[in-house]
Specification:
The structure holds three protein chains of three kinds.
Chain A (H helix, E strand, L loop, with lengths): L6 E12 L8 E12 L3 E5 L6 H8 L3 H4 L2 E9 L2 E2 L7 H7 E4 L10 H11 L5 H14 L3 H4 L12 H13 L5 E5 L7 H14 L4 E5 L3 H7 L2 E6 L2 E7 H6 L4 H7 L5
Parallel strand pairs in A: 3-8, 3-9, 6-7, 7-8
Antiparallel strand pairs in A: 1-2, 1-4, 4-5, 9-10
Helix pairs in contact in A: 4-5, 4-7, 5-7, 7-8
Chain B lengths: L5 H22 L1 H24 L1 H6 L3 E2 L4 E2 L2 H32 L2 H14 L4 H20 L6 H25 L3 H9 L4 H12 L1 H17 L2 H6 L17 H9 L4 H31 L1
Chain C lengths: L1 H41 L5 H5 L2 E2 L4 E2 L2 H32 L4 H15 L2 H15 L6 H25 L3 H9 L4 H30 L25 H10 L4 H30 L1
Antiparallel strand pairs in C: 1-2
Helix pairs in contact in C: 1-10, 3-6, 3-8, 4-6, 5-6, 6-8, 7-8, 8-10, 9-10
The chains are: A alpha/beta, B mainly alpha, C mainly alpha.
Chain lengths: 261, 291, 279
């Protein structure tokens, strides 16, 4: 029976190495990563530092190539399209594949302008349309109630947790199919973390999410599928509950039990 | 997702590339201006130096354009004397100010004094020249004799003008000395003054030398203020109370009515000035790089 | 023996510190003294008339209206030329290339330019703009020359301001689908604007005080410049002529007062702008 699966993100034997520079040999950041993420789910990528998790994430929206010189092998497909092919417009891609960074960063403008920055770049200028986008995305990020009366406030006056939720709203404004989050809660207090996790849970039906996190408990709370990365390789991947309950690889078990980290 | 939009991608890429090239061209503006300056000024001046003869131009003691005599030796000496005088007076004062601000003054004194000294450099040179004429020249005349329009007056005035430059760079150089040096010296029982003179200043040596060299460059390039105060006689001054003419004054004074070979000789003076200051600045950069 | 040496060292210490304080205070007070001196002598002639009337009798009487206009025109035009050029250079150096031979060469050019005395710029402006390009003594020639002179300052301050923009903000822009030029235009430049404005204002202050490079390019006409190709006489030049030709000491003092006042206003304004941004 043909599968009804709608695969949003597919990686096939993806490898990445940083270019060598004088005094520094070429560094292999990713080796042979293959995974598939169904639409409407949340994938969490866990693993100790320097495992390649963030690098992988940045390859999916082609952000890595903006500031780094490296070589990628393998295939990455988003919604069926090879994103590294010649026909792929990286600018359009980055609107379809949104990214939330680890440090909360607000653009130096009002809350309203922050959220509408992406849509305005694509030419949307009608106030009613922009207003609707602002309300919808801020609600989805659980920030609307707190800021709806002060949308013209300078976004840098918000707290870290609010800025991060603003970042999520800002990314959602472009109606992306895929949302990538690179340790979004690492700098936040538990309350803001809970708000963001709730936002993710409600988001996933419309926006597939890939979440890199150092916090295994967070993965357990939020993700449908979890992948374990270690030293540039993906050790195993599977439904979160199964992975946590009975991991198939000893290294996964060791990491989850805290024997190393 | 993005299939079939190849056209749009290429258009965008081409636009970005065009922007990049435009910015690259603009970025060359500073080099272009430098090249143009060298080209045009040297093109006017160097042939004249050749025509007169390098030795005669630089060493000749008579500057009489109407007679076709173009020796700038008195002006070179004038520049040297005025500059050295300015440094002899200005460097100790600048260093003391820089030391005070960096080593002894509290933060409140610093936030008040430092901007005051820096604002001093914002005052235009013509105003300094004017004050030189109305205040310094009569003062020199009454206390030391002569007409007052002299090397000494020019040096005094220039020393005030280069003070902010030297002080500010010297201050940065002193601040860059690690605190550990000072602490070590004080721990050995040295007084703060001894620490400064025997440890901090020697450690900041190259930065301080750079400050002096850059101050020298500024003094050498000063024009309007010197014209108003130095007397402008084309003689080699044998006493600080004699008047003198600097290379810069020479150009500014006669440019208004010079023509032909005379005008080219003034450009030639500019060439010499340019070379001298370029060497000075290169020396300063070299010292900084070596550190 | 030890006691005597120690006491002497302490005396030297106190003298040294005291002396350095004295000198520093004296230097700081110098600024106040200069302003006070100009105020004392220049205040009597200062009035609205001074700014609004045309000069009479070569400048002995009347006001300095054409001079004010020339000054504003010259300052504005030279900034209009040098600021876009300088900012674009800074953008290219920081955003579009990595440090390498090209950036070293460009920076070397800017550094050299910064060290050239203004009289040489005067010669350069004269031979290139006034003579070779046929502009004659004009506001345009003067503005172009001044623009060349302040270019290194603008490049340096713009570069610092752009480098101060946190790196992560650019990533945010890219992640929202912006191209490099869009990131620079919509995110980096607005953030760097206060720093750039400060540099521009400081360059303006310098331009206002310039005489040597202006006097050979704008000419010395006291007429009101009606077009960019007309000669004119900015304030610093007017002051110089008044003082040097001994035309009128009174007017000279007042002009100096206005000139210095204007420059100080500009510099203090720049500092205030920077301080306001930091808070």
């Amino acid at each position: 029976m043909p599968s009804d699966r709608n695969i949003m993100l597919k990686a096939e034997k993806v490898g990445y190495s940083y270019a060598s520079s004088p005094g520094k040999p070429a560094e292999q950041a990713l080796i042979d990563i293959s995974l598939e993420v169904d639409a409407g789910t949340v994938l969490a990528i866990i693993g100790p530092g320097r495992s390649g998790k963030s690098t992988f994430l940045r390859l999916v929206n082609r952000l890595q190539e903006v500031s780094h010189d490296g070589a990628m092998t393998g295939l990455i497909q988003v919604n069926g399209f090879d994103i590294y092919s010649q026909e792929c417009d990286p600018f359009r891609l980055r609107r379809q594949v949104a990214f939330v960074f680890d440090k909360p960063r607000a653009l130096d403008m009002s809350i309203y302008d922050n959220v509408t920055f992406g849509p305005r770049l694509t030419g949307i200028s009608s106030k009613s349309e922009l207003d609707a986008i602002v309300e919808k995305t801020l609600r989805a990020a659980f920030l609307w109630e707190e800021v709806k009366d002060r949308l013209t406030l300078d976004a840098n006056r918000l707290s870290g947790g609010q800025k991060q939720r603003l970042a999520i709203a800002r990314s959602l404004a472009l109606k992306p199919k895929l949302l990538l989050l690179d340790e979004p809660c690492s700098a936040l207090d538990p309350i803001s973390t809970a708000a963001i996790e709730q936002a993710l849970t409600e988001l996933k039906t419309s926006t597939t999410c890939v979440l890199v996190t150092n916090n295994t408990k967070q993965a357990a709370r939020v993700a449908d599928i979890t992948a374990f990365f270690l030293m540039a390789q993906m050790i195993e991947i599977g439904p979160t509950e199964r992975l946590f309950r009975s991991p198939s690889d000893k290294r996964t078990d060791d990491y989850l039990s805290g024997r190393f980290g | 997702m993005s299939s079939g939009k190849g056209m749009a991608v290429d258009d965008l890429r081409r636009r970005e590339e065009r922007i990049r090239l435009a910015l690259l061209c603009m970025a060359f503006s500073s080099i272009l201006v430098l090249a143009l300056i060298i080209l045009f000024v040297f093109r006017e001046g160097v042939p004249q130096i050749m025509r007169v003869g390098v030795a005669e131009f630089l060493g000749g003691g008579r500057w009489a354009p109407t007679k076709g005599l173009f020796g700038i030796f008195p002006m070179i000496i004038g520049t040297v004397q005025v500059t050295l005088g300015a440094l002899v007076i200005g460097v100790p004062l600048s260093l003391l100010s820089a030391i005070c601000l960096s080593e002894f003054a509290g933060p409140r004194t610093r936030t008040i004094m430092k901007p005051l000294i820096e604002l001093l450099s914002a005052i235009p040179s013509v105003v300094f020249g004017f004050i030189g004429v109305t205040v310094i020249v009569p003062l020199v005349r009454e206390t030391l004799g002569g007409s007052g329009f002299s090397v000494l007056s020019a040096a005094l005035m220039l020393s005030v003008m280069v003070l902010p430059t030297i002080t500010s760079i010297a201050y940065d150089a002193l601040r860059a000395v690690p605190a550990a040096y000072r602490e070590g010296s004080l721990a050995l029982g040295a007084t703060p003054w001894q620490t400064v003179t025997r440890v901090v200043v020697p450690a900041a040596r190259s930065g301080l030398v750079t400050a002096v060299i850059l101050g020298m460059g500024r003094a050498m390039g000063e024009t309007m203020a010197v014209i108003m105060v130095a007397g402008n006689a084309v003689v080699v001054p044998t006493s600080p109370l004699h008047p003198c003419r600097t290379l810069t004054s020479n150009i500014a004074l006669e440019m208004a009515y010079a023509s032909g070979g005379h005008q080219k000789a003034l450009f030639a003076t500019g060439v010499i000035l340019f070379v001298m200051i370029f060497c000075l600045n290169s020396l300063a950069t070299f010292i900084v790089r070596r550190r | 023996m030890d006691q005597a040496i120690r006491r002497r060292n302490e005396r030297v210490n106190r003298i040294g510190i005291g002396l350095s304080y004295l000198v520093t205070m004296a230097v700081g007070l110098l600024l106040a003294a200069i302003i006070g001196y100009l105020l004392w002598n220049g205040w009597p002639r200062l009035s609205m008339d001074f700014f609004l009337r045309h000069p009479e009798d070569l400048g002995r009487g009347g006001g300095i209206l054409p001079v004010v206009v020339s000054t504003i025109l010259l300052g504005g035009l030279s900034l209009a030329i040098s600021v876009p050029l300088g900012v674009c250079t800074a953008i290219y150096l920081t955003e579009y290339t990595a440090e390498g031979r090209l950036t070293t060469v460009i920076r070397f050019g800017a550094e050299c330019l910064a060290g050239i005395p203004s009289i040489i710029f005067g010669l350069f402006g004269f031979i290139l703009f006034v003579i070779t390009l046929g502009m004659g003594w004009s506001m345009l020639a003067g503005a172009l020359t001044l623009a060349c002179m302040v270019l290194p300052t603008i490049i340096r301050t713009a570069e610092e301001a752009i480098k101060a923009v946190p790196a992560g903000l650019r990533d945010v822009g890219y992640s929202l689908g912006a191209t490099k030029s869009q990131v620079v235009w919509h995110i980096v430049l607005p953030q760097a604007r206060p720093g750039i404005m400060t540099g521009v204002i400081l360059a303006l202050g310098r331009a206002l005080g310039e005489t040597a490079c202006v006097i050979f390019t704008t000419g010395v006409s006291l007429e009101m410049p009606a077009s960019l190709l007309d000669p004119g006489r900015p304030m610093a030049v007017h002051f110089y002529i008044l003082a040097r030709e001994g035309i009128s000491m009174e007017m000279a003092y007042t002009t100096a007062l206005v000139l210095v006042g204007l420059i100080l206003l500009v510099n203090v304004g720049a500092a205030w702008l920077l301080a306001r941004r930091r808070s």
